[in-house]
Amino acid sequence: MNIEKSTIANLPTKYGKFKIRAYKQDNQEHLAIMSKNFEDIEAPYVRVHSECLTGDTLGSLKCDCQNQLDLALKFISKEGGLVIYHRQEGRNIGLLNKVNAYALQDQGRNTIEANLELGFGEDDRDYSVVEEVFKDLNLNKIKLITNNPEKIKYVESLGIEIVERIPAITKANNHNKNYINTKKEQMGHMF
Ligand SMILES: Nc1nc2c(ncn2[C@@H]2O[C@H](COP(=O)(O)OP(=O)(O)OP(=O)(O)O)[C@@H](O)[C@H]2O)c(=O)[nH]1
Ligand SMILES: [Zn+2]
């Protein structure tokens, strides 16, 4: 696999001081956001956060992404570990298609039905860059922050030991409760 990686730089944030390294795979650029001391931890906390421009940047209430990112960065800054910011917008259908999916959701489709109606799978993400990040940073034992059983399965398939799973549950609102319910009922997410 052809992966290009940056050198490591400092990134002071409102959450604390992190180090960052960018990874480029095909046309997607991803980021590892690491707490200062994570190399010294036997099993660091890891969050794989898939990009959601509408949530992460604009504060959309249609999903729980911004709250989950906020939770992960606070937690990792305090407890040690890393967030992999995985640039696969809209479960990897891209921003334009996600907006089309949102328009279908405005007409009553749920998050899965909208994707299928547009000719995509319910979740088209590919996590192969995550394997490269784990190798690059010598991670073989982690504590994974997620509700998503697919992420757990993927990490375990790499031979990485998950010593603990930390739920990424945040407060729901009127706009995202159906979305969260669909993830729970139809995608097996552990809420
Ligand atoms: N296609 C599509 N993508 C969405 C929608 N809402 C959020 N997303 C994308 O879904 C991804 C986040 O997925 P989630 O299901 O919230 O969470 P997860 O990463 O699978 O699982 P957790 O680790 O438990 O948070 C991001 O890439 C978002 O852009 C939607 O309605 N349609
Ligand atoms: Zn979102």
From TrEMBL:
One of its GO terms (molecular function) is zinc ion binding. It comes from the Bacteria. GTP binds at residues 47-51, 68, 89-91, 111, 146, 151. Pathway: Cofactor biosynthesis; riboflavin biosynthesis; 5-amino-6-(D-ribitylamino)uracil from GTP: step 1/4. The keyword Lyase does not apply. Binds 1 zinc ion per subunit. Its cofactor is Zn(2+). Zn(2+) binds at residues 52, 63, 65. InterPro entries: GTP_cyclohydro_II, RibA, RibA-like_sf. Pfam families: GTP_cyclohydro2 (PF00925). One of its GO terms (biological process) is riboflavin biosynthetic process. CDD domains: GTP_cyclohydro2. The active site is at 123 (proton acceptor), 125 (nucleophile). GO terms for cellular component: cytosol. Residues 8-167 form the GTP cyclohydrolase II domain. It is an enzyme of class 3 (hydrolase). Catalyzes the conversion of GTP to 2,5-diamino-6-ribosylamino-4(3H)-pyrimidinone 5'-phosphate (DARP), formate and pyrophosphate. HAMAP family: RibA. Belongs to the GTP cyclohydrolase II family. NCBIfam families: PRK00393.1, ribA. PANTHER family: 3,4-DIHYDROXY-2-BUTANONE 4-PHOSPHATE SYNTHASE, GTP CYCLOHYDROLASE II-RELATED. This is GTP cyclohydrolase-2. The gene is ribA.
